[in-house]
Write a structure and sequence with these properties.
- This protein has nine helices and seven strands, in the order ααβαβαββαβαβαααβ.
- It is globular.
- By secondary structure, the protein is α/β, with parallel strands linked by helices.
- It has one domain (5-239): Vaccinia Virus protein VP39 (Rossmann fold).
- Keywords: Methyltransferase, Transferase.
- Belongs to the methyltransferase superfamily.
- Pfam families: Methyltransf_11.
Length: 240
């Protein structure tokens, strides 16, 4: 493919914003350290997590490598610093934030370079928080969706790679439900890197199968709204 999959999301930034879910407050509460004021949202994308952090009155800086994603973020959060950068080269000074949060993006990073960079920008005792929304495929139609677009993997495996730079590594899960329209589900699928980087005929086939699922599954057909269950996986660790 002509560009790395990690940089492919810009082609579907608007669909990403429309279709991707936000993050449950319980997960954010668990990830943030007590008394945190300055927070880096690393791999911020269109600002799904950034928005939730700004709403809490935190001083937030958003960093992402994709211009199109940051353009969407800047539109909704014009007063929030949004910087072009990567986890391997974070455009912030040393000891500048209390927490670094990474939503849906750690799996795209090079940990050998990203972990020292995160440690560099964190203040002593600062916290790294990782979070992923994963579809709960125990519900029949959600499992069938996974058959079409690929089943979820468990991101909890990334916890083992944080030591020895980070200590007190913990995991937490939050079950919740996101409510969206049928078109938003199409946008969710369209914004997946696999779909974006696939040939046009593959994209058309995948989206056609999703539309058929929406039109024929008893839980979805003729419904103006969809309840999509999620299992949000959280990992937090403290700078050693």
């Amino acid at each position: 493919m002509s560009a790395p999959r990690s940089l492919s999301f810009g082609a579907q930034a608007a669909a990403y914003e429309r279709g991707r879910p936000s993050y449950p407050p319980e997960a954010i509460n668990w990830l943030l350290p007590p008394g945190a004021r300055d927070v880096l949202d690393l791999g911020a994308g269109t600002g799904k997590l950034t928005t939730r952090l700004v709403e809490r009155g935190l001083n937030v800086v958003a960093v992402d490598p994709i211009t199109e994603m940051l353009d969407v973020l800047r539109t909704s959060l014009p007063d929030t610093p949004a910087l072009l950068g990567t986890a391997e080269e974070i455009p912030l000074p040393d000891d500048s934030v209390d927490a670094v949060l990474v939503a849906q993006a750690w799996n795209w990073f090079d940990p050998e370079r990203a972990i020292p960079e995160v440690a560099r920008v964190l203040r002593p005792g600062g916290r790294l928080g990782l979070v992923w929304n994963t579809r709960d495929e125990r519900l029949g139609w959600v499992h069938e969706l996974g058959e079409i677009i690929g089943h979820e993997s468990d991101p909890a495996r990334y916890a083992s790679g944080l030591a020895p730079t980070f200590t007190d590594v913990r995991q937490h899960r939050v079950e919740w439900t996101n409510y969206l329209t049928p078109q938003a589900l199409i946008d969710l699928v369209s914004s997946r890197s696999y779909c974006i980087t696939s040939p046009a005929q593959v994209q058309s086939r995948v989206l056609g199968r999703v539309r058929t699922l929406l039109a024929t599954h008893p839980a979805l057909a003729n419904s103006p709204g969809i309840a999509l269950p999620y299992d949000t996986v959280c990992i937090r660790a403290t700078l050693a």
